[in-house]
Amino acid sequence: MFYSIFIWFLRIVAAIIMLQTLYFKFTAEPTSVALFTKIGMEPYGRVGTGVIELIASILILIPRYSWIGAGLGLAMMVGAIFFHLTKLGINFGGDPSLFILALVTFICCAILMFIYRDKYFNVFKS
């Protein structure tokens, strides 16, 4: 019982964090535009990452495909953390919350990938 609640908690936290950033990406909110301009990926990177995060969020909430969503989310957060550490800085715009949310999502997705490791190893065996 606790185990399944924990898994759903991880899924929901990761999905909510990724979904809540979509509004800013898809509406070209100035901070989002500034962020992607600074890393040289505006506008295609902003919209593209938004689409991938939307797909990851949907998949992470479907138990059968949760491991795929977690993998996509993990890959996206590796990129986000990389750019925060190399080009943007942890306090982009004077606020570390984007970096912290990327770390939380990374941790949730990494734990989900560990939990579902049998699923993705079985896919590559056949």
Describe the protein's architecture and organization.
82% of the residues lie in helices and 0% in strands. Helix 4 (66-88) packs antiparallel against helix 5 (97-115). It has 126 residues and is mainly α. It has 6 helices and no strands. The chain has one domain (2-118).
The helicity comes to over 70%
Assembly state here? Answer: single chain
> Per DSSP, what share of the residues sits in E-state strands of 2 or more residues?
under 5%
Report the radius of gyration as a whole number of Å: 15 Å
Instruction: Report mean pLDDT, rounded to a whole number.
Output: 93
Beta-strand segment tally: 0
Number of domains: 1
Low-confidence stretches: none
Decide which structural class fits the backbone. mainly alpha
| Biggest β-sheet description | none
Number of helices: 6
Order of helices and strands: HHHHHH
Shape: elongated
Straight-line distance between termini: 32 Å
Describe the secondary structure blueprint for this structure.
Elements: H1 2-26, H2 30-38, H3 44-61, H4 66-88, H5 97-115, H6 117-125
What does this entry show, briefly?
It is built from six helices and no strands.
Descriptive tags:
126 residues; mainly alpha; 82% helix; elongated
